[in-house]
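Holo model, 3-acetylpyridine adenine dinucleotide. Inputs:
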Amino acid sequence: SEDSTPQTESTPPTREIDAVVVGAGFAGLHMLYRLRKLGLSVRVYEAGDGIGGTWYSNRYPGARVDVKSMYYNYSFDPELEQEWEWSEKLPPQPELLRYIEHVADRFDLRKDVQLRTRITAAVYDESTARWQLTTDAGEVVSARFAIMATGCLSAAKLVEVPGIETFRGRSFHTGSWPAEKVDFTGRRVAVIGTGSSGVQVIPLVAEQAEQLTVFQRTANYVLPAGNHPMDPDYQREIKSRYREVRKANRESGFGIAQPEATKGALEVSEDERNAFYHRVWTDKNSELVSMLVGFTDTLADEASNETAAQFIRDRIGEIVTDPAVAQLLQPDGFFGVKRPCLGTNYYETFNRPNVRLVDVAAAPLTAITESGIATADESFEFDDIIYATGYDAVTGALDAIDIRGRDGASLREKWADGPVTYLGLAVAGFPNLFTITGPGSPSVLSNMMVSIEQHVDWVADAIDALRSKGVTTMEAETDAEREWTRHVDEVGDMTLYPKVDSWYVGSNVPGKPRVMYAYIGGVGPYREKCDQVAADDYEGFTLT
Ligand code: N01
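Output:
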């Protein structure tokens, strides 16, 4: 069904297809696979020069996922999941990239992916009920469906001080790391930021650099990653019961099945509680979520949360030899509601003579200079600056596109006080536009692979259903959207999440509305809700 209108001087050629997918990461490629199977003509536009999304661009030393490899992969093809062999508990970025490239080749996906092409605008044309998408090369494509697979952590954030462009050394953001190997031997290096990216990159750069200075604004809770080579027996065992494993993950809270907690942290004795924390801390098979879900109330009750927080602070105090440095590294906020990190030799790194920790909460950054970094009370000279400063999360990549629905209404403007969505999948006034792992869905509060596949399947099934019903458009209803967004907030308010500054609530980006950007109700209940909406003839959507 693909054709082109003839080119004239005044109008650019318009490609007419069934669906445009924006982004060729794990979400976009799976969406392409599903829609192609339905017989749709699909084109995927990708701004980067390779496929893989996050796992293409996060090439910094130490980048690896912090969900077990056996759970962080596609489940849609039984042969693929049986044949692919993972080499480590937590696969490093190059292995994840090899995996997605293998998937793309195996299912012949690349021919419908256009790289180095950024979608800059998406405008809904009511007269034709089609989306017109414009690329940065000026190409216009017309599609019935527009599917945003733009990623939750893809719009980089730097620092809000002047002078970034004046620095004469090398600058890197962890999320757009160069393809070629970067050597830090003999160099004076700065890392700004101590979130998951900083925690991964710092120990490896410290091993190379002559001097490493880490600028920390907020200390984070870093649990031992316990990464290790894959045990072949374990891999075989999981593969032998993959359907059951997938089902358990899909029905869980965070997309990683865990033993169900039955007691609050303060309902057990101190010995029992600490024995549990100790087990999680030392067991190399622990998950990032193990410490979060061992008790029923760690994420909701301040006193319970404090028991886990103090356990971790005590461990930091044991590892870090300089008491003043240890104290700076000990977080004082709640544990787990700002994204906890997994680290390998993270705290140990601060015992190295070539590593210095600078507290930019006490003396904030004031400028990036030609030769380095200035804070309120010191200036530093560097050869290299690594920005591990995070992202305008969840909505940033969507806001970067000028998306206009009915009557030319702008999505950015509609979301000026915070995103409003139905199920994190669709928006009233924007028919046939879908957001994969969009705001108000579990997304970043889950194993992304579980959430990506659930959304991709739901959208593909919906499009299939529309076709068999002879329906042209599907649009979220305003009431359904309002009710869902209220529910996302309400469930968030039952937890400690809104009480802590983090990118989960948008507070890392100045001026960004402070709301819950992800749904904390759990992937299991969320899936049930989505399935029920579909079963009830797409309740809350208008089909025309
Ligand atoms: O970004 P972040 P990230 N002055 O926003 C600091 C996923 N991920 O790229 O906390 C000084 O967490 C900022 O300080 P503060 C994962 O979901 C996963 O590390 O705002 N400091 C913070 O320390 C993760 O949560 C993996 O006070 C400034 C840091 O920069 C998400 O991506 C690996 C500053 C940013 O931390 C984002 O992680 C990597 C300023 N002006 C990422 N601005 C794995 O799976 C920012 N900071 C392992």
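Residues 65-66, 153, 159-160, 174, 192-198, 200, 215, 217-218, 339, 342, 360, 365, 388-391, 444, 503, 508 surround 3-acetylpyridine adenine dinucleotide (CB under 6 Å). The radius of gyration is 24 Å.
Archived with the compound record.
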